[in-house]
């Protein structure tokens, strides 16, 4: 990341100059002392200025906003971008028209963009890993309810027919929803089989 070197009468003076030059605040920078300097006799004889190196911290929120804004621009969409952070999770919500283009078939496009956003946010190793959740039109919540319904309906079918049932391939997030929805059902067992991206849930009667 680009850095600048600044001199001053002392460390505080050099830091103030750097903040003014970068037009930022102390919370948004990293700095290291190259030379602490020396006051010298009467602040004149033997005086040596302090020197520091300053660089901007990685602003992952702003980078995420720029990234999703560029994607929206490329596909010709306009949307409000809302980004909130809690603990180590970043929630990004899009509000606008024709968001179906961002969601894609069963959320595949949304998941792909979310994956890329995670790479952007976690590009710097100076911060703890952040979990990124991208959503629009409350799709995540709606999809979760749909999958819970699929889980219960499929389990009931397995219980009734006593035959093993294989569901369609799902991503890891959706498979976890199915497993969780049936974890307390003592009449069936669930497990995953196959290789990504064709890995699927298998529901079998509990013998």
UniProtKB/TrEMBL annotation:
R3H domain location: 141-207
Coiled-coil region(s): 1-32
Predominant location: cytoplasm
Keywords tagged on the record: Cell shape, Cell wall biogenesis/degradation, Chaperone, Coiled coil, Cytoplasm, RNA-binding
InterPro entries recorded: Jag_KH (IPR038008), Jag_N_dom_sf (IPR038247), KH_dom-like_a/b (IPR015946), KhpB (IPR039247), KhpB_N (IPR032782), R3H_dom (IPR001374), R3H_dom_sf (IPR036867), R3H_KhpB (IPR034079)
Intracellular or extracellular location(s): Cytoplasm
Gene Ontology molecular function: RNA binding
GO cellular component, one term: cytoplasm
Residues spanning the signal sequence: none
Region named Jag_N domain: 5-55
UniProt-listed GO biological process terms: cell wall organization; peptidoglycan biosynthetic process; regulation of cell shape
Subunit structure: Forms a complex with KhpA.
HAMAP family: KhpB (MF_00867)
PANTHER family, alphabetized: PROTEIN JAG (PTHR35800), RNA-BINDING PROTEIN KHPB (PTHR35800:SF1)
Job of this protein: A probable RNA chaperone. Forms a complex with KhpA which binds to cellular RNA and controls its expression. Plays a role in peptidoglycan (PG) homeostasis and cell length regulation.
Comment on protein domains: Has an N-terminal Jag-N domain and 2 RNA-binding domains (KH and R3H).
Family to which the UniProt record says this protein belongs: Belongs to the KhpB RNA-binding protein family.
Protein name (record): RNA-binding protein KhpB
Organism annotation: Clostridium neonatale
Gene this chain is encoded by: khpB
């Amino acid at each position: 990341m680009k850095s600048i070197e600044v001199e001053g009468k002392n460390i505080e003076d050099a830091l103030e100059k750097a903040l003014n030059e970068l037009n930022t605040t102390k919370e948004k920078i990293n700095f290291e002392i190259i030379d602490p300097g020396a006051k010298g006799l009467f602040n004149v004889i033997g005086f040596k200025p302090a020197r520091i190196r300053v660089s901007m911290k990685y602003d992952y929120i702003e980078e995420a906003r720029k990234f999703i804004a560029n994607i929206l621009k490329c596909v010709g969409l306009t949307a409000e971008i809302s980004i909130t952070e809690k603990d180590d999770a970043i929630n990004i919500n899009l509000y606008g028209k024709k968001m179906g283009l961002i969601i894609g078939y069963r959320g595949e496009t949304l998941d792909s963009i979310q994956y890329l956003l995670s790479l952007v946010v976690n590009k710097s190793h100076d911060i703890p890993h952040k979990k990124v959740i991208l959503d629009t039109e409350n799709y995540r919540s709606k999809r979760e309810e749909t999958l819970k319904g699929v889980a219960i309906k499929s389990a009931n079918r397995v219980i009734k027919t006593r035959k093993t049932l294989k569901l369609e391939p799902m991503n890891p997030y959706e498979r976890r929803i199915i497993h969780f929805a049936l974890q307390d059902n003592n009449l069936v067992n669930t497990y995953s089989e196959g290789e990504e991206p064709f890995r699927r849930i298998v529901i079998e009667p509990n013998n």
